[in-house]
Amino acid sequence: MIKKEKLEVEYKLYRSINFNMDDSKWYKKPEMIVAFSALFISVVTTIVGIYSAYVDRSYARASVWPRIEIARSYNEQSFELWVTNSGTGPAIIKHAEVTFKDSVIHQWKDLGNIPNFIQSHLSSRILPSQQKIKPIMFNYKKRAEIDSILRMDDYLTINICYCSIYNECWETDRNNRLTEVERCEINEEDRFLQ
C-alpha cells in the first residue's frame, strides 16, 4: 500500500512539474502557440511577397511604356508630319491607317500630284524611346503651294496602332487621343503600306 501511495505522490508531482499539460486545452499549449505564430508569420510573408512581385511588375511595365504622338510642322519652305515616341520604352508600330477626304490611301503618292515630297516608312516598325520619324515632308517654293498643302492637311487623318514590349497595345490619332486596345487589328484593305 505504501508503494501505491508513493506512486500517486510521484504522479501528482510529475503532473505539477509538467504544468498540468494534460488538463489544458490544446490551443493553450506553448508548442501550439509557437506553431500558430510561425504559421501566421509565414502567411504574412507570402502576402508581402506576392504584393512585392505585383509592384515590381507594374514598375517594369511603366519603365518601358511607349507613347506615340503625331504632330505637324511647317514654315515658309516646308511642311512636315512627325511621329514621335515620347514614352519611356520602344513602340512597336503594328500598322497605320491614313485617309484623305474619308478615302483610305495606301501610299503618300495617292494624295495626288504633289511635287517635291520626301517620305519615310511608317507602318510595321519599331520606334525607340525619345525618337521621331518624318513620314512625309513637302518642300515648296511658292506661298500658294503651302496654302494648298495646309488645305490638304485638313482632310488627312492618321491612326497608328502600336504595342509595348509587354504586348500592351494602344491606338492614337492626329489629335493624340490615346485608346487602349486588346491588340492591333486592321483590314488589309485599310493598311497604309509605307
From TrEMBL:
The chain crosses the membrane at residues 33-54. Keywords: Membrane, Transmembrane, Transmembrane helix. The keyword Transmembrane applies. This is Uncharacterized protein. It comes from Shewanella woodyi (strain ATCC 51908 / MS32).
